[in-house]
Amino acid sequence: MKTLKIFGLIALVVTLGAFSGNLTSKYEGYAIGDIATDFSLKNVDGSMVSLSDYNEAKGFLVIFTCNTCPYSVTYEDRINALDAKYKSKGVPVIAINPNNPSKKPGDSFAKMKTRAAEKGFTFPYLLDEGQTVYPQYGATRTPHVFLLEKTANGNVVRYIGAIDDNYQSASKVDEKYVENAVDAMLARKEIKVTKTRAIGCTIKT
């Protein structure tokens, strides 16, 4: 009887260990070179948006951002500028709000619609309803950028991190991480800086 109990206990520990391992891997997020899975999320105009909708795209700037984080607000004009510069070159911005609106009412879908209209967002602004997409990417802050290159094998992660090196002022930026990465990708050159630390507010769950 004791032997059976011991074997049962061992089996339970192994099962829990495997389950725990799956949870850990689920939230690791993407590394450079990984293939990003597609998603289907609601845009502020009511439509559903997926990466597969963009037949002519060469890549994507997937940016996790929100209404309420001061860092995100500071970067809004720069995100608009990125879309204006790169959408015509085949690399549009896809913005995703990852926050739980029950924890941050200012990040509700209704508030997102208002903010997008106020700022004249030229890109989709999607709600990660149920918070299922940001963990796949491994986003931890707002804003947090993932540059994807569209290839025959899928959307390959080429850059992860901050937009640039000065969250306080666009006029004081020395290094434009995202622009450098996109320019290199489009020119089929090596991206010299592929990962930086995202500076911003933690995602509210």
Detail the topology: elements first, then pairings:
Blueprint: H1 2-26, E1 35-36, E2 41-43, E3 48-49, E4 59-64, H2 70-86, E5 93-97, H3 109-119, E6 125-127, H4 133-137, E7 141-142, E8 144-151, E9 154-161, H5 177-186, E10 201-202
- Total E-strand runs: 10
Structural class: alpha+beta
CATH superfamily grouping of the largest domain: Glutaredoxin
Give the class-level CATH name of the largest domain.
Alpha Beta
* Stretches with pLDDT under 50, minimum 5 residues: 1-26
Q: Kindly report the average pLDDT value.
A: 89
User: N-to-C terminal Cα separation, in Å?
Assistant: 45 Å
Secondary-structure element order, N to C: HEEEEHEHEHEEEHE
| CATH architecture name of the largest domain | 3-Layer(aba) Sandwich
Number of helices in the DSSP assignment: 5
Main pleated-sheet profile: 8 strands, mixed
Helix content: 25-40%
Shape: globular
Strands side by side in the biggest sheet:
1-9-8-4-5-6-2-3
General description of the model:
The structure is a single chain. The protein is α+β, with helices and mostly antiparallel strands and 205 residues long. It folds into 2 domains: 29 residues; 172 residues, Glutaredoxin. Helix content is 33%, strand content 20%. It is built from 5 helices and 10 strands; from the N terminus they run H-E-E-E-E-H-E-H-E-H-E-E-E-H-E. It has an 8-stranded mixed beta sheet. Strand 8 and strand 9 form a beta hairpin. It is globular.
